[in-house]
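Below is how a single chain appears once it has passed through the pipeline. First comes the sequence as given, then the structure the pipeline wrote out for it. We keep one example in the README because the format questions we get most often are answered faster by looking than by reading.
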Amino acid sequence: MANIYDIRQALAETISAGTESPLYTYATIEEVQNLPAALIEPSSGDFEVAMVRGSDIFEFNVFVLVSRADPKSAQALLDGFVSGDGPDSIRRAVYDRDDLGLGDAVDATVSSMRGYGGSLEGYGVAHVGAVLQVRVLVSR
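Resulting structure:
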């Protein structure tokens, strides 16, 4: 059964491989070295989905950050990453590889977006971003 570490790594790899524009992915919340970036953060887990450890559900926040050096191009780039479809869509990347490369026992879905916009300053780089919520069902 896939664990949180495996899922984080696989989710980061799936996102990175599934977008046409360069997107640095970080499987852990760490100092961002390069933008645009997607950072994976586990947010919750439910271990009582089915009796006798039949399934677990994990929720992850994917923080998507782009440089705000040019606000118009920053927003267009962010829109591409958080849209439901398109060559840079993180949702599409996960949909196209919903097992995250971990096998049939894993089913991942980008369920929602929140926190779009804002003017953030972190690590010396002004950026704008959004949070995608990803739900991962792991079955036995």
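DSSP finds three helices and five strands in the chain.

See the next section for the split statistics.
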